[in-house]
Write a structure and sequence with these properties.
Aminopeptidase; 7-stranded mixed beta sheet; 2 helices; globular; alpha+beta
Length: 114
């Protein structure tokens, strides 16, 4: 995780989530509503030192549960190529073909809740 700040026009209405370890943010993600039933996760990251310790999956699960509480029927996201396996392991499915976003290849993915 870098220390750069990324903001967009949804900053004020989005929910931000972090995982703290010894007072340091080691994982983060943001959730915002696209439609009454659809939410989107953006800016999901885990500090490289803390990857592969289930912190990302735990944070993702927490964000999903919060989204379900406020009416989400599905969550979409745009996964960087190197994160596709992570999201697949958390039951996200690819939609369409990969695309370029911020000079990096991304894959749109979705998870539906019944």
């Amino acid at each position: 995780m870098g220390t750069d700040t990324v903001k967009d026009n949804l900053e004020g209405v989005a929910q931000h989530f972090v995982t703290l370890y010894q007072g340091m943010i080691v994982a983060a993600g943001r959730l915002h509503q696209n439609t009454p039933d659809q939410y989107q996760i953006r800016y999901m990251a885990t500090h490289s030192k803390y990857q592969r310790q289930k912190l990302g999956s735990q944070l993702l699960s927490f964000i999903e549960q919060e989204a379900i509480k406020i009416s989400a029927k599905e969550i979409i996201l745009n996964a960087r190529s190197k994160a596709i396996a992570f999201y697949k392991s958390n039951n996200y499915k690819p939609i369409g073909k990969p695309h370029i976003e911020i000079d990096l290849e991304h894959q749109k993915m979705i998870k539906r809740f019944d």
